[in-house]
Amino acid sequence: xxxxxxxxxxxxxxxxxxxxxxxxxxxxxxxxxxxxxxxxxxxxxxxxxxxxxxxxxxxxxxxxxxxxxxxxxxxxxxxxxxxxxxxxxxxxxxxxxxxxxxxxxxxxxxxxxxxx
Amino acid sequence: xxxxxxxxxxxxxxxxxxxxxxxxxxxxxxxxxxxxxxxxxxxxxxxxxxxxxxxxxxxxxxxxxxxxxxxxxxxxxxxxxxxxxxxxxxxxxxxxxxxxxxxxxxxxxxxxxxxx
Lengths: 116, 116
What we know:
The structure holds two protein chains of two kinds. Chain A is mainly beta. Chain A has strands at about 5, 10-15, 20, 25, 35-40, 45-50, 60, 65-70, 75-80, 90-95, 105, 110-115. Chain A is globular and about 45 Å long. By secondary structure, chain B is mostly beta strands. Classes of the chains: A mainly beta, B mainly beta.
């Protein structure tokens, strides 16, 4: 069975501070896919990144970066120089297939509050 | 359309009432998912369609929940004899199976159901 753990429930940071969100996953599959989604107050889940289990390269996209460590089953997400617009709930998710063929298993989410 | 559209945006139902929630996926998307998101939790899988075929309904919590996608596009999630524990946001997601499409799953804004 797949399982995703996001231990921190709410994280408050002052604007311009960095914030790191931890995600630990469990799966028996050798091929799997990891996602991060952002859920602003409007409720829609906004796709941030997809990473497959064979690609352990870290990725940076603007102020966002992701650290995938297969050895520790972790896929952590860092927001650098946080802004008020980053305030949202962030979900880590796991799937056996990247496109439409399998369900996503979500963690409970991290509520990020950026204080101006 | 450009995104996944869900209606209504909000629904208040009296306990025992039947409700129908609609999802309009991205045109041409083969796969469609329904998720249930309780307050403060991550989304939980309900059911999955590939075209008009319902391939997985293992997440439906009871036989009061029923989903259909008769023509392989629009889907309806129906809840009969609603109960207070059905109060949640119901999210719909669609996906292409084209591996060149990098976004994975695209989510709608959800329907917030409140049972009183």
